[in-house]
Specification:
This protein has four helices and no strands. It is an all-alpha fold and 272 residues long. The relative contact order is 0.13.
Length: 272
């Protein structure tokens, strides 16, 4: 069975629905449904958190790639400048060795400088390639860690729901137990009260016995209540107890839902 997520705006309707349910079992079933729907809200929040984290990782990687592109363009410009210098030297040498020793020294110095600049450029290019490689590796690791964290969060969510449903089931058992005791007290108390009034009015005759079971008003009223009203009393008591316990669960669900929706709104605002 598929469930829809809960809405803060419709929470008053959930309260009205719970109050309108006449049977304790139906109320606890509705509470279980609300917890299952609350899990959908938590899954939606985790999906937003995952998307936000993924976007942040992607943006950081894109910024690094842009920086690498800029660095690469700078290195390309440097290489072009070196190529131009090499071409200029070759053109001069193509015309023959200069007779001027000073000019010859300048050409030799330029060639040595070009070689040194080429070596430095090669080192810078290798360093840039290493940075790009490390960036890609780091990016892959972050994506893998993010995927793993998503998987790791699914198990606690499932365990949390199971724990919540178990709490509701335990509360339902406690309600059934208390209903039995309270109903029995009520079923016995009403005949006792009626018998007491009958005693005051002298309807029990002149018997001197103190045994309550010898009083026919008590016995008749007990039998009538047991046959005609006992089940109704149990239903009313169970519904009353279930409503009180249900209100506690609703408060817990409401607080969790408010926290989840607040986090979702914050993530949405940050993305925009």
């Amino acid at each position: 069975m598929s469930f829809r997520s809960l809405s803060v705006n419709h929470f008053s309707q959930y309260q009205e629905t719970l109050s309108a349910l006449p049977d304790a079992k139906e109320r606890y079933s509705f509470i279980k449904e609300l917890y299952q729907r609350l899990t959908i809200n938590e899954e939606e929040l985790e999906a937003l958190q995952f998307e936000a984290a993924l976007t942040e990782i992607q943006e950081q990687h894109d910024l690094q790639k842009d920086a690498f592109r800029n660095d690469h363009q700078v290195l390309k410009s440097i290489r072009k400048a070196i190529d131009d210098r090499i071409l200029a030297v070759e053109q001069k040498l193509y015309l023959g060795l200069p007779d001027d020793l000073a000019e010859m020294d300048r050409l030799i110095a330029e060639q040595e400088a070009i070689v040194a600049d080429q070596e430095q450029l090669n080192e810078n290019e290798l360093a840039l390639l290493e940075k790009m490689s490390q960036s890609d590796i780091s990016y892959g690791k972050k994506l893998a860690a993010l995927d793993q964290s998503k998987t790791n969060r699914e198990v606690p969510l499932k365990s949390k729901l199971e724990r919540q449903l178990a709490q509701v089931a335990e509360a339902e058992k406690q309600t059934a137990f208390r209903t039995g005791i309270i109903s029995m007290v009520i079923i016995l108390l009403i005949p006792i009260i009626l018998d007491y009034f009958a005693y005051l009015l002298g309807l029990n005759g002149k018997t001197d016995t103190r045994l309550i079971f010898t009083h026919y008003v008590f016995l008749i009223s007990l039998i009538l209540i047991e046959f005609f009203y006992a089940q109704r009393i149990k239903i009313l008591v169970a519904a009353f107890l279930a409503k009180k316990q249900g209100d506690l669960f609703l408060n817990e669900i409401s607080a969790s839902l408010e926290s989840i929706e607040k986090s979702k709104r914050k993530l949405t605002i940050n993305r925009n």
